Amino acid sequence: MQDIQSLCIANIKKSVYDAALKFAQEISIQNDIAMDNISVEIPADDKNGNFACSFPLSAAKIFRRAPFEIAEKIVSYMNKDIQFIENIEIAKPGFINFFLKENYFSEVISKINTQKDEYGKTDYGKNKKVNLEFVSANPTGPMHMGNARGGALGDSLASIMQAAGYIVDREFYINDAGNQIDKFALSLEIRYLQHFEGEENHLLPEDSYHGEDIKLLAERYIEKYGDVLLNKDSEDRKKALVLFALPINIENIQKTMAKYRIDYDTWFHESDLYKSGEIEQTIELMKQKGLTYEKDGALWYKATEHGGEKDEVLVRANGTPTYFAGDIAYHRNKISKRKYDLCIDVWGADHHGHVSRLKNVLSALGIDSSKLEVVLMQLVRLVRDGEAVRMSKRTGKALTLSDLLEEIPIDASRFYFNMREANNSMDFDLDLAVKKTNDNPVYYCQYAYARICSIFRNTDLEPASKINFEKLNTTEEKRLIFTLSSFPKTIINATEKRDPSEITKYVLTVANEFHSYYSKAKIITQDKETTENRLALCKACAQTMKNALSLMKIDAPEKM
After folding, report:
1. How far apart are CA 463 and CA 541, in angstroms?
2. What is the dihedral angle through the alpha carbons of 483, 484, 488, 490, rounded to the nearest 10 degrees?
3. In this predicted structure, what is the pLDDT of residue 389?
4. How far, CA to CA in Å, does 417 sit from each of 90, 236, 349, 441?
């Protein structure tokens, strides 16, 4: 299903393209003109039309004419009977501007109020199967602010891509094997022994986990099982402690994610790659393809022969596969075994160097690395009273995602973390996020929705089912309706850019235009037909805002 605005743009492009070909034929130009080179934009000022085409500017070299002359010729050859287009004008230095008919605006309102919760959805993605892996916090400790931003970003992107016609699986990759689990086991063991034999007799190594959470996990084991591990050998003791503590941490992660309104389709355990033999199989495949060599007792990947800066260890001298080996096997599993058309990973920006390493090795294995995309996410700085905040007011320790969700409404958290593109760092104002004023962006949007709901509570009239545009022809009304018509295209843009901030910007624009309209126009008037048509516009506006907020799992309250 194609939305009205996209259909309009497609028809304009086709008309310009056909006219350009006729002009080229007239002056015997052989240069191929591609439809993709013809772009249609939305002017910042609607006095310059609802749509504008700048193709004559870029085509000056092809036609060897001035852009304005090219524009005149193209318009002279164009089919003027373009659906929804009332008028076509040429503007210097060579723009072709298109103005909409009134039936465009009427059709938009009718479509929104008919489609309701489905409005905005398209078949752009053609049901391609997408694996979207995000957060994937290390299960050896509490989740931090990077996980908070990654959760809001990844989950919202999944919803946006689903609305754009993709089949999306949300996935959490649990790193429950390898070096970090060994470190987790050692840290637990030392805390366990410290309880019985004193800290002075069992010092924590510098590179172990020193957090209070490790001590609490050891204490919980002792509370339940006492000193049963004291006489065990170290390996058995560590294994028992990990088997006890790791499920607790994973359950806490799952509970926190659920509280954050994230429902994962798959919790994928790294340990399953070992149990299934997929890491071993992947390493063996790399050997067969001549991608490895042995040195100093370790197995190395010939990364420098495949675009890497240095060769990488796959299996350490002690026989333990590296995290890199596990990551290769994991992505091979997603692309080759589970057959996803596209795999999107949301990573912290500090992993940027790992992107090319991973894509290069996948290509070397004969796997289509274009099926892997990585969204790199910059850090978040929490701010209170203009100062950076790192500690929880409640615990006095490093602020975790759980602490944030206790202090800040989830609606605000999810909105704020999606207000900037992922590759931009951001400040999160903790004071502003809890304010119930129009200075708070999420409150501003929700208040616009609630304001519309209050209008309907104060009238017995119903929205018009058939729109009479003569009753909706003010500048503010046209601008608002045109913005509402942009919603499906905005979802597609957000999908293409892998950027949920397109949706927050959009819903802020709708809220701003509605507040402006509300301050200038009386919705409930003495004229019944005017009122019913304006109610229809309000209904369409509320529906669009609700649909946009729902993509980020943000509530649209009817009262505030």
Report:
1. 12
2. 30
3. 86
4. 42, 43, 15, 12
